[in-house]
Amino acid sequence: PLAASATAQGSAGGTLPPPESAAQAAARRAAESAERARAAGSAAALSVQDRLTAQRLQDARNVQQELESEQMEARLEARRQALREAQAAAQAAATLTRNNAGAPPAAPPNPASA
User: Fold this and answer.
1) CA atoms of 43 and 48, how far apart (whole Å)
2) What is the spatial distance between Cα 7 and Cα 14, in angstroms, rounded to a whole number?
3) How high is the pLDDT of residue 88?
4) With contact defined as beta carbons under 8 Å apart, do 67 and 75 qualify?
5) 1, 12, 61, 100: which one has the fewest Cβ atoms less than 10 Å from its Cβ?
6) Is pTM beyond 0.90 here?
7) What local confidence, expressed as pLDDT, does residue 8 receive?
8) To the nearest 10°, the Cα dihedral for 78, 84, 86, 91?
9) Full 3-state SS string of the chain
10) What is the Cα–Cα distance from 49 to 39, expressed in whole angstroms?
11) Count of alpha carbons within 13 Å of 101, Cβ hemisphere only?
12) CA pair distance 33, 43, nearest whole angstrom
């Protein structure tokens, strides 16, 4: 029966490969095992690289957030300074107004000196 199936396959155009020796089979298994090990190593390296990339991305986001916070603080401080300056100007204007309210009116300009 085996000879008949081999003959049938042979007559269909395909030929059976010669039987594999024990040494060839061992070499094939070793090559397949090495290929699996290389693939696993590549996958592990990619996994490490992915983790490093994700960490760098998170670090960049953190730096960006810190920069935005510092910029916000700088803007707030500038607003505080502007408010302090406006308050000082308002106090100076109020002081001048109070001082001028108690002072006698200024003399009109002398037309002869003009």
Assistant:
1) 9
2) 10
3) 97
4) no
5) 1
6) no
7) 47
8) -170
9) CHHHHHHHHHHCCCCCCCCCCHHHHHHHHHHHHHHHHHHHHHHHHHHHHHHHHHHHHHHHHHHHHHHHHHHHHHHHHHHHHHHHHHHHHHHHHHHHHHHHHHCCCCCCCCCCCC
10) 15
11) 6
12) 15
Question: Positive or negative, the Cα torsion across 88, 91, 97, 103?
Answer: negative
Count how many residues are written for the chain. 114
| Tokens describing residue 89 | 């100007």
- Residues 6+ positions from 20 with CB-CB distance below 8 Å: 28
Digits of tens for pLDDT over the chain (114 positions)? 555 444 445 455 567 777 889 889 999 999 999 999 999 888 888 899 999 999 999 999 999 999 999 999 999 999 999 999 999 999 999 999 988 877 666 666 777 765
